[in-house]
Amino acid sequence: MLFLWLGSGSGYAQNYFQGPDSGSVSGGVPVSTEEFLGKGQPSGNPRVMPPHTQGEQDYLPDGLNQFWAPPQVQPIVVIDPSARASRFNEANQLAPGLYKSFTGLDMTNSIPPDPHIAVGPNHIIVAVNTQFAIYDKAGNRLAVFNADSWFNNLAPNLNPFDPQVIYDHFSGRWVQVWVGGDLTTEAFFLISVSDDDNPFGNWCNYALPGNQNGSTPTTNWNDFPKLGYDSLAIYLTANMFRFAGGYDYPKLRIIAKDDLYDSNCGPVGWVDFWNLRDPVNLQTSPTAIPVPNITYTPTDTSYMVGDSPFQTGTFVTLWKIIDPVGNPTLEAVNLPVSSRRAPPNANQLGGGSPLIETGGRRFRTAPVYRDGELWAVHSVAGGFNNAFSFIRYLRIQPSGNKVLEEVIYGSDGFWYFYPTLMLDRQKNVYVGFSRSSLNEYAGAWYTGRRASDPPGLAPSQVLQSGKGNYVVTFGGSRNRWGDYQGIALDPVNEQVWLLLEYAAAPFNRWGTWIGDLTYKHIAHGQVLASDTGLPLEGVKFELLESGMKRVTDSTGTFQFGSPEDTVHLSFSRFAYRDTTVEVVLSPNPPDSLQIALLPELRSTLSGQLTDSLTGQGIVAVLQFFAQGDPTGGPFAVDTTDSNGNFSVNTIIGTYDITIDPVSPYPYSE
Predict the structure, then answer these.
(1) Range scoring the smallest mean pLDDT among 58-67, 182-191, 525-534
(2) Residue 621 has pLDDT above 80, yes or no
(3) Domain of 650?
(4) In a domain, 52, yes or no
(5) In terms of domains, do 508 and 551 share one?
(6) 3-state per-residue secondary structure call for 507-535
(7) Which of 91, 381, 485, 601 could make a disulfide contact with 386, Cβ separation 3.0–4.6 Å?
(8) Are 274 and 249 in contact (CB under 8 A)?
(9) How many CB atoms lie within 10 A of CB 270?
(10) What is the reported pLDDT for 214?
(11) Measured distance CA(142)–CA(613) in Å, rounded
């Protein structure tokens, strides 16, 4: 039996989607950053995003799945060596090097943060729920904007959330997409578009009704928007939930850039496809939301990737958007992959209930299309008894409907969740994610692989370690994380920027951290004490060209990347002499460096402790606290002899001294 879903309006018959149908708005409203600079930005009351709980789309029973086929390639399972305190794997793969590292936006009044990032020629825009900010590439935060205030010129009380932001490298424009509205009678895609490649200055704000399929009103609203683009159009997908509660279906909206980028904020039209379904299992519920791609190779076909809707995922669905700004239509095909269930939620150092949500198996960040290949990443269950959350990336050839590469990455005892992926022009792979374990707070991590490496991923590196236990529900039942994380390609130098979430100090706070990664030059090193040859923990390391600062761990190791072949490194640690070195990096990374720090100059401090009244020596315990000692304890301790004499050999510096006399002097100074 052929099961047809019939599109309304201009839609035509198709068996796994409805549409297309077109709609439009008469125009947008201009807004300028100048209206907000120098003004305080309200934070508002605590909010869970979205404002009312709609839940997640449930996975369907496996017995309903009529699509069973062996994987097109054998999956490669890579155990992350860094979880076992190793920096290398058997294939000697190499993670990208960290060139810049600085703080992103701190916890606002909302959970989860939904961090997203875009990078232009000279600026960075980062967004979290309720706020976005503009940075320069040196890490200076130039301005912060409240999303409620930014979109208030469209209508009051839109309560924007779920931000997505891009820099369109084809057209030199910044685009933001948020969800807004009361979500009981109305809902909008809130879109803001800059007039050029400078995010300061003029933008156009638009409110495109989400509760319309084309021009036909509906009784549902758009959640969890995903934003993609190519040289022709902007692509939005969303999960559509009924105003009365319950899930309806996914929807795709295509917006031609010619109208949207009109600097006069003129009319904007769109084409919608909705009720997207599994192309094989036609009589089941609608499919999981497909995520549109970001394209770096111009093409007249754009792509989306969606997860299987079943409890055990045996396929992913590749969607093709054909002739998107002419006579658009969709094609979909299921691609068989290895069987994987949804990842369990994550535990953490110190435990806590509820566990940290890992977001299920659905794709959450834009796949990347470059040179005929599509790369996508998501989370799956992995490890012993599928008790942990792992990462899976797929390399797909859309023209042949083939999975070329399937890699699953993680380690027993650790949870890897909310991954995001990017490729540079050389097809080096960059992956950012969160990670936790019973011995590790939820932190921000990254990995990758060079284009010349075999399939797999390198040992992960920490961008920002977790600083505290995280259980934040705002009175609900879910410990939200994500719902996604940010990654963006620099259009100037092909470096990759991350905006990742971590558990901030002291506890029950989220934070975000920004990192700039490169594969051009990479160096690993170790700092040793010159007198003992032992590794030095707590050495402050700075890459002077970028200002990136790190601190060595107990192994004394450090790692960095650089787009330049000559760099200057500074090292400082209490009780050792500050050292600055110039390093010329090789064209074939990695470089291996060894830094030996000389102990601080020492001297003998001697004297006598006497009674000010009698002149007699006093027996006492003396503790010498060196200024700058990070331990906070005494650096040297001595006990005077019967005549009050003392002598200590210690580093040159400034000391605070405590004196604890022995009886009959029951006092201290």
Answers:
(1) 58-67
(2) yes
(3) 602-661
(4) no
(5) no
(6) CCEEEEEEEEEECCEEEEEEEEECCCCCE
(7) 381
(8) yes
(9) 26
(10) 99
(11) 63
pTM: 0.93
Q: What is the CATH number of the domain that holds 549?
A: 2.60.40.1120
- The average confidence (pLDDT) of the chain is 93
End-to-end distance of the chain based on CA atoms, in angstroms?
94
Q: Is the preceding omega at residue 344 within 30 degrees of 0, hence cis?
A: no
Query: What's the CA gap between 667 and 235, in Å, rounded?
Result: 76
Beta-strand pair 188-194/161-168: unpaired
User: What is d(CA 237, CA 228) in angstroms, rounded to the nearest whole number?
Assistant: 9
Verify that 249 and 312 share a domain, yes or no: yes
Closest Cα to residue 239, out of 293, 200, 276? Answer: 276
The model's pLDDT over 231-290, given as tens digits with 9 standing for 90+, comes to 999 999 999 999 999 999 999 999 999 989 988 999 999 999 999 999 999 878 788 899
Dist CA 263 CA 202 (whole Å): 9
DSSP-H helix ranges across 472-589: none
Output 656-659 pairs: Cβ under 8 A, ≥24 positions apart.
656/624, 656/625, 656/627, 657/622, 657/623, 657/624, 657/625, 658/622, 658/623, 658/625, 658/634, 659/609, 659/620, 659/621, 659/622
Rounded-to-integer distance, Cα 102 and Cα 84, Å = 27
532 plus 398 within the same structural domain = no
CA 516 to centroid of chain Cα atoms: 12
Are the C-beta atoms of residues 581 and 588 closer than 8 Å to each other?
no
Contact indicator for 489, 459 with CB cutoff of 8 Å: no
Res 137 pLDDT > 50: yes
What is the pLDDT averaged over residues 655-662? Answer: 93
In terms of Cα–Cα distance, which of 493, 448, 465, 455 is closest to 589?
Answer: 448
Q: Are residues 476 and 621 in the same domain?
A: no
Give φ, ψ of 259 to 5 degrees.
Answer: -75, -45
Residue 14 has pLDDT above 60, yes or no: no
Helix, strand, coil shares of the chain, percent, nearest 5, are 5, 50, 45
Long-range contacts of 605-614 (CB under 8 A, 24+ apart): 605/647, 605/648, 605/649, 605/650, 605/655, 606/645, 606/646, 606/647, 606/648, 607/645, 607/646, 608/640, 608/643, 608/644, 608/645, 608/646, 609/640, 609/644, 609/645, 609/646, 609/659, 610/644, 611/665
- 122: alpha, beta or left? (left if phi > 0; alpha if psi -120 to 50): alpha
Q: What is the spatial distance between Cα 135 and Cα 122, in angstroms, rounded to a whole number?
A: 9
Beta strands 110-111 and 47-48, pairing class: parallel
Question: What's the rounded Cα separation, in Å, for the pair 260 and 241?
Answer: 26
Instruction: Indicate the number of domains in the chain.
Output: 3
Which residue type is seen at 509? R
Strand order of the β-sheet with 312-322 is 291-292, 301-307, 312-322, 329-341
Question: At which of 547, 567, 597 does a domain end?
Answer: 597
The pLDDT of residue 8 is 32
